[in-house]
């Protein structure tokens, strides 16, 4: 996620050492390419051993190109769709799915193993232009130490965030450039409806919400509860992130804390589903299909939680105990029909930009 998704520390650990070899088939050459290129957001990660197994079994080497926040990556993929950077795009989520589909970003492919993917995540089931890979919840996270020191209860809901007690405490991402930022906007629209979300954001703005371009900046530079924020002296104890961010703080902590230093305002969550798709003008379509099959294999799905801090979509895929212990999925997240997102998203973002950034 995001995202997605979750912690720059995970990406920075060098979890990917990827190489590319073989000839490039430019779409119609005589020699099949043995390199398959995945385009994704900055939070893509996989265990070396799991990736090595795929490369050995498939005969393909995987090259990964990271294009920033999910929103930025999707926009770039659309702009380059006639001459794509790669074969598979991973990281388009339900908030931006219609934009990608309406722009003809993907070609149909029904992945092997799709029957094992929970039907509630298959949002393009009739055409199979995208394959669900993971889900998670976009939520406000809080810095436990800050609230303990100030003898203040952390916020628990959207309503709480506009109260005077939380003035100048929240940082969020730009809804026009960031997937979690857009998810938070859609969460507020789902909560307050077409007639109420703008009034809510007027209150948030009056209460000192800070907006930055993307998740990396918000979480690792502005949020006082993150490992990066603590080192940098960040001063915002509330951030729009993910329900799975707290376990990442524990697992990648140095030294590792016994409890998560951050918590989740569970009444602020919006459910996010991420997809992968075979790019319409992919040079290596055969390799791209093999890679998509791999993304919904049980081995990859069970590897995901501790690398990208998202939940698997394949039925029966196990989730590590340390992941669920510190970051359980939200019990009642806000959701929105994809058709409504498609119909209203661009106007909501335009209105949000005018209201909050000007």
Summarize this, please?
Pfam families: SBP_bac_6. The protein is α/β, with parallel strands linked by helices.
Number of strands: 10
Helicity, as a percent range: 25-40%
* Count, helices: 14
Q: Which radius of gyration do the C-alpha atoms yield?
A: 20 Å
The main pleated sheet reads as:
10 strands, mixed
**Strand residues, percent:** 15-25%
Distance between the termini: 28 Å
Catalogue the unreliable spans. Answer: 2-30
Oligomer: single chain
User: What is the string of SSEs from the N terminus onward?
Assistant: HEHEHEHEEHEHEHHEHEHHHEHH
- Estimate the global geometry from the Cα principal axes: globular
Q: Which structural class is indicated by helix and strand composition?
A: alpha/beta
Average of pLDDT: 90
Strand and helix map with partners:
Layout: H1 8-12, E1 35-40, H2 48-58, E2 61-66, H3 70-79, E3 88-93, H4 97-102, E4 106-107, E5 131-143, H5 144-149, E6 170-173, H6 179-206, E7 210-212, H7 215-222, H8 227-232, E8 238-242, H9 245-251, E9 262-279, H10 285-295, H11 298-303, H12 305-308, E10 311-312, H13 321-326, H14 338-356
Parallel strand pairs: 1-2, 1-3, 6-7, 6-8
Antiparallel strand pairs: 3-9, 4-9, 5-8, 5-9, 5-10
Helix pairs in contact: 6-14
Protein name: Thiamine ABC transporter substrate-binding protein
Keywords: Signal
Signal peptide: 1-22
Your description of this structure?
The protein contains 14 helices and 10 strands. It is α/β, with parallel strands linked by helices and 358 residues long. Strands 1, 2, 3, 4, 5, 6, 7, 8, 9 and 10 form a 10-stranded mixed β-sheet that branches. Helix 6 crosses helix 14. The protein is globular, with a radius of gyration of 20 Å. Residues 2-30 have low confidence and may be disordered. Residues 1-22 form the signal peptide. Keywords: Signal. This is Thiamine ABC transporter substrate-binding protein. InterPro entries: ThiB-like. It holds the Pfam family SBP_bac_6.
